[in-house]
Amino acid sequence: MSPIFTRSVSLIACGLIGLLFSSFDGEAANRKKNELRLKGVGFDDKGLYPKEYTCDSTGISPAIQWEGLPNGTTGYVLTMHHLDPTGNKHIYWVVYNIPKSVQFLSAGVTNIGSFGVNNINRTNAYAPPCSKGPGPKQYVITLYAISKLIDPPQATRDITMDVVMSEIEQSKLDSSVISVIYSRSPKTPFQRS
Question: Burial letters for 50-75: b for 16+ Cβ neighbours within 10 Å, e otherwise?
Answer without folding.
Answer: bbbbbbbeebbbbbbebebbbeebeb
